[in-house]
Amino acid sequence: MATKKEREQQREHARLLFMQGEPQKSIAEKVGVSAQTITKWVADGGWEQSRAASNITRPELVNKLLNSINVLLEDLAADPSPEKTAAAADKLVKMSATIERLDKKTSVVDVIEVFMAFSKWLQYRMSFDPNVTPELLRTINHYHDLFISEKLKESF
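Below the sequence we write its predicted structure tokens.
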């Protein structure tokens, strides 16, 4: 039976693998726990939401908004009634403002992207750098999570 500290190390290792897109069954084998344990950790820790947030980039968000604007303009061209025009204008203003904010401001998505890249780099370094330990990775990830939580409260 693993100690509490060993179990936490397994959990953190599993979380890192999950965030990198590793399948749950593979994670269970690599970490040495059951697939059910991984499923529970994913659900309890909100890992799906974290991974989803880390996988969308600013350019993807801008492209989605631009596609939405295009659809809106096509609908408006097909039916330029005053009611539709007023509603479309309001939506266009809001979408344009969102795109402008995305272009000017660092978002939580950007921060998560940088943290994920840094974590991957540290994992690579761990294979040959004795100073990079699982405990160091856990500590860094803990502070990454705290930073993101605080920034979300401030709403960037």
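Residues 58-104 form one domain.
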